[in-house]
Amino acid sequence: MTQQNGRLGGPVCRPRRPTRQIRVGDVTIGGDAPVRVQSMTTTITGNVEATLAQIRELATAGAELVRVTVNDEAAADALPRLIAESNVPLVADVHYDHKLALASLEAGIAKLRINPGNIGKKEHVREVAAAAADKGVPIRIGVNKGSLHRRYEQLAELDPAGALVQSALDEIETLAGVGFTDVAVSLKSSDPREVVEACRRFAARSDVPQHLGVTEAGTLLAGTSRSVAAMSVLLSEGIGDTVRISLADDPVHEVTAAFHMLQALGLREGFARVVACPTCGRVEVDVVALATRVEELAKDLPPDRVISVMGCIVNGPGEAKAADLGIAAGRTKVAIYRKGVLHRNIPKDELEAVLLEEIERLR
Ligand code: SF4
Asked: Does the predicted model carry a pTM greater than 0.70?
């Protein structure tokens, strides 16, 4: 794979659409920056210890930006400590109350996510934009089908994607009208096809960087599948500057899934690749448990490493050829391959110790 502008390019994806670049703390978004991975905390923001613990977990998993809801005064009061102790830039998610947006800026937040339409009066939007400009803080305009202003209702019935695009363009204009252009947008719907359509149409009309997401995507499997379906179409067309896979689950999964998606498309380096057979009636070992354990042990390996886990010896030698480390279970023994060559046969009860040793060799 070739490295282009800090990201891996491959035949799957068209070159990235040129977008203007914004800076969120020390993280750049858009332009020649790699596609960034975001997530959002699920804790009560005012619970500083729980929120900090989750921010750290997300950052350790690879999240480059973490959003927290700032929905009340307790959340705003928690921000100074969260910001001081977070190791990634934080984004404040604010609805309705412009004072909470102002308090977030005062606390030193790195980015605001607002929907100017629900901030209300123009002077409130102007006040927030002026304070953000003063601090050099960008704003993401988060357009969401579920909270579109009623002026787009009719259009949304005829052309749902068009309503998202129009709302985003109008919001950008509102901020531009008060002299603020340091923006990103997101156009979200729970229907992946609407997200694809809206993001494509927006990309044809604006160079504002786009944050991609399917909102209320669902639980772990359904949500990941629906998000990846929409985002991989867009990313392969060069559209998308940041991503969030929204899941009704532990947000750490959002980050892991996002990196797997970006790595599969050749857009980011992610994890060492663990290939595991789907198992069948021939299986001689608990492949799910074994592959999960191998993933755990391999998560800090260089991303170009490949490990194959096969439930029996039928496909073991073949898969092992393309892997740095191959594991194929037999009835009483397990065959260990190194770069396609049978290295040793070990008794099953020695597998854990041998895995530790073999994976360590791949560092
Ligand atoms: S490797 Fe063996 S156990 Fe796994 S799917 Fe193939 S035949 Fe079945």
From this structure: yes
